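Weekly structure sync - notes
Attendees: PM, LS, DV (DV joined late)
Agenda: review two folding runs queued last week.

Item 1: First target. Sequence and structure tokens pasted below for the record.
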Amino acid sequence: MQESEEKKIALELLETEQAYVNRLHLLDQVFYTELMKEAKAGKTVPEEVVKMIFSNISSIYQFHSKFFLPELRKRMEDWNRNPRIGDVILKLAPFLKMYGEYVKNFDKAVELITAWSEKSPPFQELIADIQKRKVCANLTLQHHMLEPVQRIPRYELLLKDYVRKLPPQSPDRSDAEKALEMIFMVAKHSNAAIAEMERLQNLWVVYQRLGLEDDIVDPSNELIKEGPIQKISTRNNSTSEKYLFLFNNMLLYCVPKVIQVGAEFQVHLRMDVEGMKVRELKDTEFPHTFLVSGKQRTLELQARSGEEMDAWIK
């Protein structure tokens, strides 16, 4: 008797889930537990660092090993009598939101492993020792840690396939479609979390370059463009090097600092974007020139090329 297409996909889901739980076991019960034990004994790194590296991996491991995998297994054993998995996934999918925290922390975790491997040889040795074990299959800790990041997109693909292969009248169709929708939202949620974290991180770096001026630091700001520019002085017909940061709500007109201690730039002028007008100037002596006029004042600026001028005006 040939197995139905949807059963094959459900079996693949179960098999990959079993392999995934083994990987989570390795991360939580081997790497995390052993590194924590050594940290507690004061031999390698602070306990806090180990906790920061592994984020909420323990909760993820418990969820998959104690709930998701056993439920899937039960379903597959009972498949001939009750061929469905959509309802199980639908019931448990909301818990996948906890991946947001792990995914958001992933880059930081990898950085910490690198930094502390250099700082603490015993820490590096312990990781290398675990990596040599057969269970690691010649792969690094970082490689194993990537698995949870990739798991949700994998569910999405398998479930999409499953829904596609279901007969139109299948009793599992409604639940499977709802579960797919939920997993799609979870995947979007964790991607949005990463994007937002990166945005804030980049913004913070910009604020540091500007010397963390109180009235400029605002987490809701969005940096649109930055770069060097020449300021034209009509009084003595000369140009001087300046630097612009354009945010969604303001333009910062800055001077590069000669002695770069702390900040890289000094903010000379802050112009509100609201009510601002920008236009190209046809100047034979100073090509690629444009005028920015706002409530605060008007600036005559020169870009390095026509393309660059167009990009600023845009």
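Item 2: Second target, run right after the first with the same settings.
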Amino acid sequence: YPSEFLLQKITEDNQIPLHLHVSVSLQYVAGLKGNALVEFFHGSIAEVENEELRHLMWSSVLFYKTPNVEVMACVLLSTKAIYFLLDDSFIHADEHQSEFWTTENWDCDNSSFHLSCCFVLKLNDLQSVNVGLFDQYFRIAGHSADHIVTCLTRDSYNTHTFIQQLMAVLSLLARTPSPEPVDKDFYSEFGSKTTGKMENYELIHSSRVKFIYPNEEEIGDLAFLVAEKMDCLTDLQSLNILLYVLAFQVNPVEGSAPNTSSLQPKTLILTSSDLFLFDEDYISYPLPDFAKEPPQRDKYQLADGRRIRHLDRVLMGYQTYPQALTFVFDDVQNQDLMQNLALDHFGE
């Protein structure tokens, strides 16, 4: 340890997404390669000597206690824990952080000294992993509100790779087997005796950590919600969700340089007739076991919706991934001009 393959892999993965800005401390981490990265992990992050770094990923993260603050993090998976190396701007982003982080002695005179905060979730405390729709994000849950984190990878490949690595690491844990019998038949495992409906698909790992995947009903519920938001009555059977993707809406920042903009996280949903932008709650659903009341806001809140027939053109930028798309609509007060023209000039 570490193997040449691992060194090469974590070096390739150690790249901050171009569209996101991070602090100096995380830029320093992103500049490390190979052995220097492993030495940094053991010298500055690892809690015990005999743990091994297995995977590295850059991702936006959300915490259960601060559901409105999305922050960039370097996620490090070892044989003992998951480490979230966070942007130091996160500390000052929310007034409720005082109980969450210890911020004593943070001012350092040495300008070459880079300080960042690290959130640690021990693998022994891990209880469940919820994978989001189309593998766009996943939520890691422990035993309390302090131990729930959502990684917004916005990339099915990164989600899949991390889940595979996490399962491999969990297989190394020695946990005592649960006392209840493990041989359950299909119907008692997945079926609810009261409703007869299928529950979300669960995979119970040998370490007793649950991996929960969305089932077909979630797409059905989403389609129903989208149909509710549409102006006209739509046959739910004919409504197909063609695309679900976590994206950013680009908003120009007022009073600053022309090229500066803020990125607002949005869920983009495309149907055969409409394009929708939703504000989605990625951290509160499904409700954790300790939650005593539902969250303050719904899972999906409509931010914008436009008819495809009003789409005039799509402008594409020349930069590499992530691609910037500009949708130009010609819906003048939502009037269908051709229809009015036909009535005025060609109707009797």
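Discussion on item 2: Residues 75 and 84 are 5 Å apart (CA to CA).
Action: LS to circulate a short write-up before next sync.
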